[in-house]
Specification:
about 375 residues, alpha+beta, Butyryl-Coa Dehydrogenase, subunit A, domain 1, Butyryl-CoA Dehydrogenase, subunit A, domain 2, Butyryl-CoA Dehydrogenase, subunit A, domain 3, eight-stranded mixed beta sheet, 12 helices, 8 strands, about 50% helix, globular, oxidoreductase, flavin adenine dinucleotide binding
Length: about 375
C-alpha cells in the first residue's frame, strides 16, 4: 500500500512543538529522539522513498519545503532529516549505482520503521574527502564480504542512525574508494559522544568508531577508482545544496518572526511607541524580507529544475547554497544587532538562531571552494 505524502501543514505543526523544546535540546545537547519519533509517526522519515516501496514518493521540492519548515522549529532535527532525505533522493532513484535489492531493502526499512541514514565521510586526519585525499577507514576482503575498521567524525544523527554510508578505501593492490552500507547496530561499532559545538548542539554529530565490522559483499554499494570521484555529481550537489539552503533559511525565518514580534511589543519609555514605528527598524525588516524572498526563489528554482530532470551544473547549485546561507546569516545578524542585549540573551531564542545559522558556513560546499572553483573555471586555470 502506498503512503500518502505527508502535508506541509503536518511538518509545520510538528515544527511548532519542536520549537517549544528547542531551547532545552540546545542547552543539554541531548539528541532529539522525541522529535525524530514524531517525524517517524507522521511518515516524514520516508518522504522521498518511492511510492512503489510504500513511501511518500516526494521529490526535491517537497523535501526542501519540509526541511525548511522543520528547520524553523528545531534545526538540529532538520539536519538529521535532511541527511536522510538526501540519501533517499540519491540511492532510490532510477539509475542509482546501488544494487537494486539493497536499495529497496533500505527503502522498505525507512517506510516500516523510519530508518535514518547518513553518509559517514569525515575523518580526523582527512577532513572532508570533498577536498581530496584517501580515507584512513579500510575495507578488507573477508571471503565474499568485507571487514571495515576506522573512525568517522561529525557523524550527524549518530545516536539515531540505522545505517551509515561509510566512505572507505579498500586494501586491494589498486585501492578503490567509495561507500559501504553498514547497519549501525552491527557488532564492532560504537558511538563516542564528542559533539559539543556552538550551534546545532542537538544534532548528535558524534564520532562513529568501526572495529573489524563485518559487512556483506552486496553492501559495497559504490566502489570506484579514486579518480572517478574527482568531479561532483550534479544530482547529489543539487539535493545537498537545496536541502541545506532550505534548512538555514528556515532558521532565518524563525529569527525574522521573533524580530518582528519584538519590534511590535517593545515600547521604550523614551519613545512612547513600539520600536516598529521607527523608520530604521522598518527598513531593517524590509531588507530581511528582501533576502528571504530571494532565498525562496533560489531554493524553489533549484528544486524545480532538479525534479524536472534539468539538472543545474554543480557550480550553480553551489552558488545557490552559498547565496541562500549567507543571506540567512545576514538576516539573523541584523536582527541581533538591532535588538541589542535582548538579541544576545539566552532568555530569548535569537541568540540560539544566531549560533545555529553560523553553522551554514561549515557544510560543504563551503564558500571558498565555490568561489575558487568558479574563478578557476572562468580564468581557464
Amino acid at each position: 500500500m502506498n503512503a500518502a505524502v505527508p502535508s506541509l501543514d503536518v511538518a509545520r505543526t510538528l515544527a511548532q512543538s519542536f520549537a517549544e523544546r528547542a531551547a532545552e535540546h540546545d542547552r543539554t545537547g541531548a539528541f532529539p529522539h522525541d522529535n525524530i519519533a514524531a517525524l517517524r509517526e507522521a511518515g516524514i522519515l520516508a518522504l522521498c522513498v518511492p511510492r512503489r516501496l510504500g513511501g511518500g514518493g516526494a521529490g526535491l521540492a517537497r523535501a526542501a519545503e519540509t526541511v525548511g519548515a522543520v528547520g524553523a522549529g528545531e534545526p538540529a532535527t532538520a539536519l538529521v532529516l535532511a541527511m536522510t532525505l538526501l540519501q533517499q533522493g540519491l540511492v532510490l532513484r532510477d539509475g542509482s549505482p546501488w544494487p537494486r535489492p539493497v536499495a529497496d531493502a533500505y527503502g522498505r526499512a525507512a517506510v516500516v520503521r523510519g530508518a535514518l541514514i547518513n553518509a559517514l565521510r569525515v575523518e580526523p586526519e582527512l577532513g572532508t574527502p570533498a577536498r581530496g585525499g584517501l580515507p584512513a577507514t579500510i575495507a578488507r576482503r573477508d571471503g565474499a564480504g568485507w571487514r571495515v575498521t576506522g573512525r568517522k567524525i561529525y557523524s550527524t544523527g549518530a545516536p539515531g542512525l540505522a545505517y551509515g554510508l561509510v566512505f572507505v578505501r579498500t586494501d586491494e593492490a589498486e585501492p578503490r574508494t567509495g561507500n559501504l552500507l553498514v547497519p549501525l547496530d552491527a557488532p564492532g561499532i560504537r558511538v563516542e559522544e564528542t559533539w559539543d559545538h556552538l550551534g546545532l548542539r542537538a544534532s548528535g554529530s558524534h564520532d562513529v568508531v568501526l572495529e573489524d565490522v563485518a559487512v556483506p559483499g552486496a553492501h559495497a554499494v559504490d566502489l570506484r577508482a579514486p579518480a572517478a570521484w574527482a568531479r561532483p555529481d550534479p544530482l547529489q550537489q543539487a539535493w545537498s545544496c537545496a536541502l541545506l539552503a532550505a534548512l538555514y533559511d528556515g532558521v532565518a525565518r524563525a529569527a525574522q518572526g521573533w524580530f518582528v514580534r519584538f519590534l511590535r511589543e517593545r515600547r521604550p519609555g523614551s519613545l512612547g511607541a513600539p520600536l516598529a514605528s521607527l523608520a530604521r527598524f522598518q527598513e531593517a525588516v524590509g531588507e530581511n524580507e528582501r533576502l528571504l524572498g530571494v532565498n525562496a526563489r533560489l531554493v524553489a528554482g533549484l528544486a524545480a529544475e532538479t525534479d524536472a530532470g534539468r539538472l543545474p551544473a554543480p557550480q550553480e547549485s553551489g552558488f545557490v547554497k552559498v547565496t541562500v546561507t549567507e543571506n540567512a546569516i545576514a538576516v539573523v545578524q541584523r536582527a541581533a544587532e538591532l535588538c541589542g542585549n535582548a538579541g544576545l540573551s539566552r532568555a530569548n531564542p535569537l541568540e540560539r538562531h544566531l549560533r545555529d545559522v553560523l553553522c551554514a558556513r561549515i557544510h560543504w560546499p563551503q564558500g571558498d571552494a565555490v568561489r575558487t572553483n568558479a574563478g578557476r573555471a572562468i580564468l581557464g586555470i
